[in-house]
């Protein structure tokens, strides 16, 4: 007190003056000094209730709630009707977040002062703070009816309505308060907040400016103005206000400085400056470790920085300080889910007394527990209170997973009609229309969106998705790059950009442009993102480009810093698999699945590891188990399940198929679907026309050359993990080269299949293919409409590049309808599973058409009762049976069979065309079919051993060899040396 003027220094025996001086120090933001001064005064005046009361308030300002409450209780013990102390008890309990006790204190106050307007207002506030908002509204509405002109009651009712989402009604009451009392400070504050929640950010900023002008020396008013400016899209201006307050010479309390630093952190976050934002919030926590606001902001920032372990550490520390805090529990569950730890999220939710219905339902959907999600959602609907926006979005997602597409679409449009100004709603509609392939509707909807919505990050990403679906890779990239410049997290942007480049084809001009812009984006981000974050983003690029050695290094480093991140561990497991660290990959994959049993990538990797370790039966049984449990979505398992019938040693499979296929139920189970799929029933999903989206532009000759040239670099989009490469390399025999280099090149060849397969090659593309007399002969037959049968394989780039350019008057015998609308309309597509396939082939041939087939699919996969084929031969010492449709038709009609296969070596392509041997006169059909099959299998073996550039690891023939080799030696190479 040495700096206090003598005239202002109270006499030691004047308790009232001492109390006033202590209050003045507190109001002057000299709270620590106020506490010291009043504490000493209490020693001189132990019975001075006024001094004790002011000390209780100063301690509360310090955040010392327990000490403050103790003094309040001492006052009330001495004077039970001490009204200021009764109010202080309620306020202090609310600040200590003991809302039940605060409500009880408010009731006691009302019992002592029945009908007192101030007590009624305080009870309404306590109800609201205790999350009993509806009850608060009813109580305050009744109080306002009894005291229509009471401003505290009217203000508290406005705040409760605001908390309940009734912002317009809240604003009306707030304006009434301000008309009656223009300087009503709580109402001035509330108006800024209400307008912000109404998303009228310009009006909120103006209200914030008015508040700060009226209270220029009050840091809380300046803070509220800054918050409004940030929401209005001016984080730089908002941060300037914060920095000016922090630079003031007058001292602020640690809690106040912490709040300001948290807001500065939010301003930096809105600019995407996560490194600086983390520094700001850490400074806030250092000044006020007990600041819940700072803890929550730090958790969110660590998530943006992709350091989920650091975020979870903060969650655990927060819950130790505030047990079962509703908001921090939510932060922890959200972090666990983003880290891929679904079982951890389940445990955290189960341990909380709060309902968190939206988190439970979202978790059920992620784990594909659709029946659980439906039960929880129906419980919410039964309450009759209406679903929150979050629950409405989850309902739409659930309906889609339940196969109720029309209901989901109707709910989605209804959601948009209720939230037409919401960016989240607009993004939901665009993404929903694209995912259901209502592309024209999506285009029309997007075209009608106002610029204010189109510039929002959620909408911008949805529009990028739409553009890529329409093959407008340039617009998609522009949207993503623009959105990423100030985004707090770049993870989604990086994944999308590298996937777009890979989908288009690494090496092509559009792909090179995307990757160059992605690299520039990451370089720009180096100053604003933590090093750990940049490392994780680089790991995502390595994953998207199949840079397995780099991925292993980066994920090893990242997992060391963030061991609780299951998503990072899943990436590491894939890198270990691709670098042949199989034992480590298995251990990591098992850990991933223990935390997320529905992780599709981990399920696929675990399935493939069975084959690496020579356990075909285990792999088949595992796949059946995952299909029947619902963990694997149908779009994934429907193609993986093709090999299961080939496992001779899988006992009881045929009985299992027969039993489940015969089940009749209105709700068809996955087991029934799988059994019927094996039997090739008419509802076989592979018979359905595949998606015609994304719409890919045709590949030019330049594109093809660029794709082939990129093989030298070996950059490729990762496919499904497969052990096929290990077998393929073993088959090369004496031609084997360095295994790592050979496998990398072969993986790129497989990738070319995925790139070229969905596209057509431009008809005017000048392809420098080597021709032959046999090729010219075949072209002439096709042009002259002379009936011809043609066969090739699924290996190499095969005949993908010939479909639109060179095949004329041709029908295709393929396992599924192609995704090319022009091929489907200009060519005849015949499915081998069609019972009339042979008849349709005959009809095409007699009509002067050629028929092309790739029969390298083992006929044993057909599980129909009574099926048999004599087209059997030997492939690398393994008996292999093919469908005998082609040789039987050739013999019956006397039509020749041509072998046609494009083989690549670097950027050069030659076309291997030869006329296969015809059936001998009077040769019996079975002998002829077997002889033809052996000729075909010999040609197939030649392609399989023709080098890395002609591999296709997605070919089922590699898995067939792996399953049929008795010792599985091809799959069980000496991996132990690498582990």
From TrEMBL:
The keyword Repeat applies. Residues 1-25 are annotated as: Disordered. SUPFAM superfamilies: TPR-like. TPR repeats lie at residues 117-150. It comes from the Bacteria. Residues 1-12 have a biased composition (Basic and acidic residues). Signal peptide: none annotated. Residues 15-25 have a biased composition (Low complexity). InterPro entries: CellSynth/LPSAsmb/PSIAsmb, TPR-like_helical_dom_sf, TPR_rpt. Keywords: Repeat, TPR repeat. It holds the Pfam family TPR_16. This is Tetratricopeptide repeat protein. It comes from Stappia indica.
